[in-house]
Amino acid sequence: MSQAPMDRDEQKLAELGYKQDLSRVWSGFSNFAISFTIISILAGCFTTYGQAWNYGGPVNVSWGWPIIVGLILFVALSMSELASAYPTAGGPYWWAYKLGGAGWSWFTGWFNVIGLVAVVASVDYAAALFGSTLFSLWGLDLGVVNWADGGGLGDIFALFVALMIVHSLLNIYSSHLVALLNNISVFWHLFGFAVIVLILIFVPDRHQSVDFVFTQTLNNSGFDGGATSGLVFLLLVVPVGWLLTMYTETGYDASAHVAEETRDAEMAAAKGIWRSVFYSGVLGYVVLLAITFAAVDVDAVNEGLGYSPAIFLSAMSEGWAEIVILLALLGQVFCGMACLTSCSRTFYAFSRDRAIPGWQLWSKVDKRHVPVYAVLASAAVGVIITLPALKANEDGYQYAFFAVTTMATMGLYAAYVIPVYLRWRAGDSFQTGAWNLGSKYRWMNPIAVVWVIICLVAFSLPFSSTGVPWEDDFNGTYLNYGPIGLFGVIILVGIWWVLGANKRYTGPVRTIEFDAAMRVMEDEPPAGGSSAGD
Length: 534
What we know:
By secondary structure, this protein is mainly α.
């Protein structure tokens, strides 16, 4: 029996069933920083701007963003309460087990893992797209890859793989280094935000009117002949444009996933979740308005499929546009690194609880307390699911990117809202942590649940009239593959669950037992394991 005293964080983790395997070196600011970095207003706001532009137009930015961020805050605040009560790396799937049992935990965990792997892939691939745009403007020729002639899909994919490798090495090398880089990332995002907004305000010779930004509607989906009124526009086109906000404001569960590496986790993880959403929401709105006011050449932006660099290049000189793209690109690189950290910790935790095939390997940590194999697996799967990006359609539509983007958003929000629903169902019997909502959960939780269900339906809709299988002009590259991929995997793990996983996965497995004095009695679970939190 170990006689070593435990601090509050280690004691709380032991109460939840785990010994302290990961290195607890992250401050509260570092915990906030990873979620703020993953949300990354320099990533999502820039890489998926075209989603709002094409599906709804400027109003889906000027009005859609603040309204949707407000609704997302209900999700984040509900999750914050759960993170405070259960500060473990498992995050949503652990919460779901404690509140609903092994079945809820199983499906929540798989939604979370799929969503996080897709986030890693989408962020790094989007960064590769931005990097290729910049390198093409520079005429960069490295021999093996050549952007001097505009660059091709192979060059973009090579840059994507290079980013994955760099981010893997950073995550493997040191948890201390990743925490430091996440802290630096916050200041880079603030610096980049300020410089970009100032450039977009003062450099262009002219700007769009307030009327354009706050009342202009667009429908580039092909539905209803491009009409910007009527039920088709309101119920089919506009909701698809919400993906800009929902995709950007995601990944904040990272604060929960690194809770076992954070000091004073009961408070820090909870605050990290909701604060990252709030501050990103405010700053993101400012930068999105600046981008939209700069979109003076509507034809050029439409021709560029709403891609934000098309706005920069049509509104100012190439030199100024390159500065904006570079600032955003570096923010995206920081974002990709943090996404891989969050994903690997979930992969590690779910493996530690015997839910992922090969769990013995993925749940190992090295002498630096880093889950190396979980990092490598997260990156490798991210590359594999993005392999279709080596092909594009004749219009240059990046269907692979939008597939992983949609998959990421839907997977993560499904994982977020399942434990929120279970907490709502538990009512006043739920044992709160140091940070809690009090009685406000009674109305916040149902708003969060209903909103996410609406979004899951909206993002399962066709993104284009040519993506509807029964239409004469159907083009398979425009099919909305995101929900197909997500729910396809969920159906498979559901079959697996019915065929025997329900007997093997009984919930999170304890890795520690202790007596009433909080002294460690054993470091490994008995044969068969016992569920953490029992």
